[in-house]
Amino acid sequence: MLTGRVAVVGGSIAGCAAALAVARAGAGEVVVFERAAGGLAERGVGLAVHDRRYAELEAAGHLDPGIPWVRLTSRPWIVREDGSRAGRRVGALPFGFRSYNWGSLWSALRARIPASVAYERGTAVERVLPGPGGAVLRLAGGREERFDLVVGADGYRSVVRAATRDATVPGYAGYLAWRGALPEEDLPGPAGAWAREEAANVAFPGGHMIVYRIPGPGGTGTSANWVFYTAPADPAHALSVDDAAGLPPGRVPEALTAHHRAVVDAHFPPYWQEVVRRTPKDATYVQPVHDLCVPRYGEGRLVLLGDAAAVARPHSGSGAVKALQDATVLERCLASAGSWAEAVATYDAARTPAGRAVVEMGRRLGRAQVQAAPDWAAMDQAALEAWWQRAAEGEGNFGGQALEGPREP
């Protein structure tokens, strides 16, 4: 058991899971540095966890049935058809997932962190200075602190990743994800147009929108969470990696907003047009789709976790799962290792291939569903199933790889 001092940079879902893992592994002192000064529980976007991955993560102590969730079972694909308010269903695929509200999941993970862990809000880490026996964090305002191990759980623009030899940055995939959440009571009629357990996919030339129900803010009520993927009409309107966390409506260029409206008007069935139009402006934002996989998850006294290590396109259905799995494996490695070097090497060997596989799955699905989308309207159930088998390569990694124990380096 390694009992030194450990820093976790980032206090969102990945950071909370990492802090819990490190504390349970026996670290003598754990400090979490979260840049945001305000609460994170208000973030209302949705995420989904595959049933098989949920069972593993419940056993690992990260998830439990008490966290508000919604059961999803089916994924119909829908195209516009004259005379049909809700559109024509070309087919449906199984979709065994649980959906969550990001803020509720974060709150549950935050509550699991022991009181012995220091969680510092509003504390930005400006630079990480690795050394042979640890690393120094330089914080905003000039304060410096030394740690035996630093866990980078600080997402797209990770300062911990920037301190490694291969300081890679996410690459733009060429298209955008529009996101929104509409309270269920504001959904258009008729009530039977969209069943509760469905993750509906509204398909159009060059993209699609997936929409599924999630628990409402604070776990109260239910909201329709939608994600709309399409390339900007003009590549010059692409957003930068600095905008990877998303832009609220007031900061989105008018050219992008106009293109989004035009696609909805031209290709969505009337019911789904209303879902998008009724979504409050303050509950929508646009996010450029990026991806990244680092060549190594661990180096010296630095380890990377969640999006700091591997940014997978959302199509893979494994963003939160990936972070929670990383934390689970990190806990095992720290608890069983005889030295920091052994722990880092074992974690790196276990998670680098897993991260690479999830990122590649996201790229395949991005090509199949957006960049080289089929003629959706020409499909039927058999064609949809055949297309999906090709796109997902048998579905083995959809929703995240199976969680395995750490492998020897």
UniProtKB/TrEMBL annotation:
It comes from Streptosporangium nondiastaticum. It holds the Pfam family FAD_binding-like. PROSITE patterns: PROKAR_LIPOPROTEIN. This is Monooxygenase. Transmembrane segments: none annotated. The keyword Nucleus does not apply. PANTHER family: MONOOXYGENASE (PTHR13789), PUTATIVE (AFU_ORTHOLOGUE AFUA_6G14510)-RELATED (PTHR13789:SF309). One of its GO terms (molecular function) is monooxygenase activity. Keywords: Monooxygenase, Oxidoreductase. InterPro entries: DhpH_subs-bd, FAD-dep_Monooxygenase_BioMet, FAD/NAD-bd_sf. Residues 172-289 form the 2,6-dihydroxypyridine 3-monooxygenase substrate binding domain.
